[in-house]
Target: tRNA-dihydrouridine(20/20a) synthase
Amino acid sequence: MFPQSSPVTVPETVFPIAENPWRLSIAPMMDWTDRHCRHFHRLLSRHALLYTEMVTTGALIHGDVERHLRFNAEEHPVALQLGGSEPSDLAHCARLGEQWGYDEINLNCGCPSERVQRGAFGACLMAEPQLVADCIKAMVDVVDVPVTVKHRIGIDKGESYEFVRDFVGTVSEAGCEVFIVHARNAWLKGLSPKENREVPPLRYEMVHKLKQEFPGLTIAINGGLTTGAQVAGELQKLDGVMIGREAYHNPWWLASWDTDFFGAEPSVLTREQVEEQMCDYMAREFAAHGTPWSAIARHMLGLRHGLAGSRRWRQVWSDHKLKGLHPRDVMALAHSSPEPNMNTAEAACA
Model:
């Protein structure tokens, strides 16, 4: 049994959400951006806007609301992404999200998976802009927080700018003022969700054109952006940038965001201090909810990306044979030199 630990120390979030929380954000990613991942990311950036994984309306209406909506107060600003296509259900779930304290409600109109399509939501909703508008209006009418949409530039192999222009125009008339645009089409047949993030070509110019045509709307871009230079370039043309996989796989990049993109003082935390903070968080979560440290540690495996010894460090934090150890002991083991011819578990038990 892990001992009770003190609450994790996290710098106070000082970026007012009312200014422009969409300047830089981390994308909602299924199986990745749970509350443990968001806690980790908040240690690295005080100002980036964080998103939940997509939560379906059915999961909230018929499932465990607390399990799906519980989050840590230090995650603010944090947005709830909903998946659904029934206006009344979405209104109910948006109201729940606001009651639980989320700073934004986002509607998923970009996920191309067949499972999501069977539920008649995600990217296939782009073919029904009036339905999306009805969904947005239903949510806007019952909450005071922003209601936003994340979508693609098109579906299947159609390359018409008019398609996405008309979608944005119709939905904006229902009260949506923020559009986060993944600058690829969603191919609804023939590609896996992973391939849909890589195969359809990126067309950033389509997103730029949307901003030119709708200057009063907040337009943020998502898709394929992996460097600070790219982010800075897009921020010259658009209101915001959303980063996905690169933020997850190379999280130390986030430690520079507050200085580079929000004009804040540099972070004083080192990688090791962030790791220590995460160890304390793991112990606290185990004591409070019985969460094994491995369910949390998986999100920080990219923390030492590019550093000498990072491979062994990841191996230690991925070794489920060590699940009985306190996270601080696992950290010590990850930073130690193993004896020759001894694997991680043997070294821990020696």
Remarks:
- The chain has two domains: 21-262, 271-349.
- The CA atoms of residues 237 and 289 lie 44 Å apart.
